[in-house]
Amino acid sequence: MSKAVPLIAATVVSLFLTFASHASAGDASQTVTSHGLTVYFGVVPAAIAQGVARTHGDAEMHGPDALAPSSYHLLVAIFNSATGDRISDATVAAVVTRAGGGSQTKPLEPMKIADTVTYGNFFDLPPAGLYHVTLNVTKKGDTRPTQIDFAYDQHFHQ
């Protein structure tokens, strides 16, 4: 992991907090708690996340794939609901499904930010859509993933 990744991730989290204030009315906090886990999530335009990465020398954040104009960066932070401890050693995958459309499945890669871990990756989210997101979180030592579901309304991020 390059030395620029913590700075990039911190910038993406800062952007995530800015965009989080525009969450859909049904989920104003962009937080979901289920199966003993609390997930904070955010979505920022990929061009912003990638631009920050390039500025700091990490042009291949989440791989070298070319991004579509409708690409966004999904970022999640996962905590134990009972203890508040951050889950930093899990394997996380996301299935993002557009209402009435297809789905995309990708791993969410760990991103270290100031000694904490969030998970993220790029997804193609054409504007003005409602998306269903299923996270599959496999904590270290678990044999089966915990499934967390939430909705994301792209109408607020055009």
Structure explained in plain terms:
This protein has 158 residues and is of the alpha+beta class. It has helices spanning 4-20, 46-55, and strands at residues 31-34, 37-45, 71-80, 91-98, 103-113, 116-124, 130-138, 146-153. The N and C termini lie far apart (31 Å). The protein has a single domain, classed as Sandwich (Immunoglobulin-like). The chain is 17% helix and 43% strand. An eight-stranded antiparallel beta sheet has the order 1-2-3-6-5-4-7-8. Helix 1 (4-20) packs antiparallel against helix 2 (46-55). The protein is built from two helices and eight strands, in the order αββαββββββ. The longest helix is centred in the N-terminal third of the chain and has 17 residues, at 4-20. A hairpin with a 2-residue loop joins strand 1 (31-34) and strand 2 (37-45). Mean pLDDT is 76; it is low at 1-28.
Radius of gyration, taken over Cα atoms and rounded to an integer in Å: 15 Å
Q: Average pLDDT, to the nearest integer?
A: 76
Number of strands: 8
Give the H and E element order: HEEHEEEEEE
Mind telling me which CATH architecture this is? Sandwich
CATH class category: Mainly Beta
Strand order in the largest sheet? 1-2-3-6-5-4-7-8
Sheet having the most strands: 8 strands, antiparallel
* Number of helical regions: 2
Structural class category: alpha+beta
Tally of separate domains:
1
CATH superfamily: Domain of unknown function DUF4426
End-to-end C-alpha gap: 31 Å
The parts where pLDDT drops under 50 for at least 5 residues are 1-28
Determine the strand fraction and express it as a percent band.
35-45%
Shape type: globular
Helix content: 10-25%
CATH topology: Immunoglobulin-like
